[in-house]
Amino acid sequence: MYREKRTHSDDIKHHSKHQKTDNRAFTFLDYKRVLEKVFFNDDLVEDINDVWLFVKKFESFTLKKTITDSSDTPRLKSNPLKLPEVFDKMHLINLKIKYSDDELASRLPTYDQEKVYQKRPLTKEDISNFRQLLLMYMDFKQKEKFNKLRKLRETQISLPVYQFKNEIIKAVKEYRVVIIAGDTGCGKSTQIPQYLSNAGFKRIACTQPRRIACISLSKRVAYESLAVYNNDVGYQIRFEKTVNKNTKILFLTEGLLLRQVCGEDLLSQYDVIVLDEIHERHLHGDFLLGVMKCLLHQRSDIKLVLMSATINVDLFNKYFSPLAKLIQVPGRLYPIKLEYHPVISEMKVLGKKSERFDPSPFIKIIQMIDKKYPKHERGDVLMFLSGMAEITAVVDAARVYCEKVDSWIILPLHSSMSLGEQDKVFDYAPEGTRKCIVSTNIAETSITIDGIRFVVDSGKVKEMSYDSTSKVQRLKEFWVSKASADQRKGRAGRTGPGVCYRLYSEDEFEAMAEYSTPELQKVPLDALLLQMVAMGLPNARLFPFIEPPQAENIENAIESLKQHGALTKEEKLTPIGNMLSRLPVDIPLGKMLIMGSLFDQLEPVLSLACVLSVQTPFTNKAYKDPECERARMDLESDHGDPIILLNAFKQWLELKSDGQNTNSRQWCKRRGFEEQRFYEMTKLRRQFKDLLDECGLKKNEEKNMDDMTSAERALRHGELKLLRDMKKIHKEEDSRKRKVLKKDMWEIEENLDAEDDSVDIRDIDFRLRHNQRQVKQLLKGSTAISYKDLMMLKIILSSGLYPHLAIADDFNSCKTTKEHLFHTEGKPFVSLHPMSYFGNHSDVLQLTESEIIYVPEFKGKNTVSSKHQLLVYMSLLETTKAYIMNSLRMPAAQTLLLFCRNICTNQNFSQIICDSWLQLEFPLPEAAECLILKASKLRNTWDKLLKLKLEEKSNRRAEHKLSEEMIRFMNVEIGYTVKRLLAADQKIMYAGPSGDKVSFTGPNPFSDEWQVCEDDKYGGLRMSPYLTYDCMMNF
């Protein structure tokens, strides 16, 4: 197809004028197959189905009109200027199909069409008429696109930020830092990068807190700037990018820009850096602000633009003063009526906190809306509550009310719901019915739901905080900030005038904090501080944070990095610390990946790391439905939760690898799994693998298409074509679906019948990325085939998670399973999570009568056994009480001697103290001495091999031998007792320095490379970096 000016010789009369009255039954729809072969072999149109829809509508329209037979009308004559004397709408079409009617007619099939189609054959005139109709369709689509573009430009001009376009450009040119405080909906995220690009800035980086925002914004800006088919606008997230040397606007995550700071020369590839959504105060965002402040002093040509809604203007302006210029852009909200309805309960009057949540104030608001606003007035309700328990209470109460009035659909919304259930909130309520969405703060900023007219705000939020001393994450309820309350209120005015009901008083609102607490004050700082040291910052304590964390948290994080071996005592980066700084994962998971590469267990460790990194695949139904629990019984493992998750991932992969397209969705549903989590695991595993490849810890050995046989390549090419076609069809059909919510059971009813065996787009994406061979490799790599593999997997996991250990309380044998308590180093009296394996099967942690060893001459009070166990866990979570999360059981003495940081012994090794809080006591001192000598040898060999591995000088034979020796060590059976030391014990257990000069002659049996010296803290002799001999008082 090409464009040209039309002449009289090209004129084709209107299609309806050429239809003969005796051919009114004729329709091109009867000749689809023939016409597609004639016209659509050259990608003339994007969507053939859309063409036929146009033809159907056009023919239906022309049948309703009187068709004038113009067959006897002589051909129109033209004037000397070759202009037709009679106007025809076809003259307005500035398009032409490059093939003539004769060329197109020559493509008609030679077989007898009358026999095949039971209709007359197509003639040259039919071909000419269809060509004319096709030109009309193409002209229609062109005008449709132009109208979209015109509407787009009108929308851009109508955005509030457009009024500040020239001011923003001028400020960026004149000032080093520009702070743009733009309210929600003003258009700052999409428009300002375009303004800067059009103003002449050629290298613009725009950061976003979330990967999905990078992708969506880049696509939107590319669409608006007509750059969809080039690389002027791109995005870059880890392992995925659409960027080249011509890219002018790049959207990327905050974390990725931080990594570029480490690798690039002062970010010289950018002349403008835009930091968006800085009001969210994420960990990386605050760190990036400090890095940018330092960069401004080193690069005089760099420009920095900060953008946010509900920003603390004074704080940011002061932080960058005197370099900053502030521009405030109003939002585009409709009027919102604000009403305060404080909740006054009997317990509140008495000054006590009620144990039970009362949903009745929320139901009263629904009743008030029913009375005040007629049903025919559209407008849904969005309720903000603090947590899942509160949401459940309101949903249950609201559904009871709905049984009486039958005019509401109640939908919960929180992050632990499946993605399908979450998507229901975007669907439409039937006529005369309103949606009531009962949500956590996920609906405050993360998602926008159209049609919200009423907001009900409880004023509460549950936030996670972190205690760096006890290493406990706490989920507790707080009042929201004023900024968050205003954000919630704004949700009522996005599409029309709205009402916000606040279930608290105006005085309570005034007492709220102005802004939310930064994430920097609430999360572990280990990974952040490690990255700072890796960047070459001399002293993390002096870094210019906009709001510095507490000094105690920084010190605890530095101490934690030393414990993990990432920093030396002098706070310098160690080889393993350098490697960990290059892995954008939590420190424990990073250590697991490194150790997995050392012991040739990387494939199962990769799978284990990814299942522990994503949100739990268990849905709410998983532990409420007995059928789900029974269906999962074959996945259970008495080794602990991480192995159960690995088993679930393995079985899911087995379904994907069987080649029979087994319905994995049904498999997940029956077991209470959210399948999306398994797809996330496979993507994350791929990312981890590429990371290790980048760091030189693993070579990518996967076979590509060139390694396949010709038959395998042909088969894969055919499979890929089929999958891409399925994905395209699904995308087209999905765009036409209109989902309507049912009143009964709040299920989704689609106009297109959707069955369980319908196309699963996630499965298609998975199979596009993985052929059958790759899926089988993935399955093999996610399986601990033998006892040796399983034991090594547990050792590697323990090495990463240490010092996350828990010991059982001495009195657990006298209690029920739900009452069992455990103690950690920093937090005593913690419980097993009720949804964990050990929370329901704690008997496997108890010693049986046959495992107890009776030693008559032993005077200790504790039970002697060779089967004592400790729990290694991922984290501690405190809600109503502190819970152990994702735990694994390990042999006590062996685990402590292999991993603890300080081992202190008495003179004959009968007593050993590990990390100053756990004591091992051995009835046979000689056996204890042998055990500790063996542990020392294993630790020394481990350190040497790890050093070689990090220097890319692996010794595979020695690594294999070490793994076998460690498994034998873990299975050593020697009787001992284990107990937690109390504060009173810790005051009297060490002898302390003697003050006398200590001499030691002879070889050091614990370390060939360590010079024996007196321990100036505990007393006794320091025999290795982690072992002090004869420093204990006998007690």
Short précis:
Helices cover 40% and strands 15% of the residues. It is an alpha/beta fold and 1035 residues long. Helix 23 packs across helix 25, helix 23 crosses helix 27 and helix 33 crosses helix 34.
Task: Give the biggest beta sheet.
Answer: 8 strands, mixed
Could you tell me how far the N terminus lies from the C terminus, measured between alpha carbons in angstroms?
A: 95 Å
**Per the principal axes of the C-alpha atoms, what is the gross shape?**
globular
Total tally of structural domains: 6
Radius of gyration: 35 Å
Number of distinct beta strands = 32
Q: Within the largest sheet, what's the order of strands? A: 4-3-5-2-6-7-1-8
The share of residues in helices is: 40-55%
Helix/strand-derived category reads alpha/beta
Number of helices: 36
Q: What's the pLDDT, averaged over the residues?
A: 84
Q: Beta-strand percentage? A: 5-15%
Outline the low-pLDDT stretches. Answer: 1-23, 66-73, 745-756
Quickly list its features.
Rossmann fold, 36 helices, seven-stranded mixed sheet, globular, hydrolase activity, 1035 residues, disordered N terminus, single chain, helicase activity, alpha/beta, DEAD-box_helicase_OB_fold
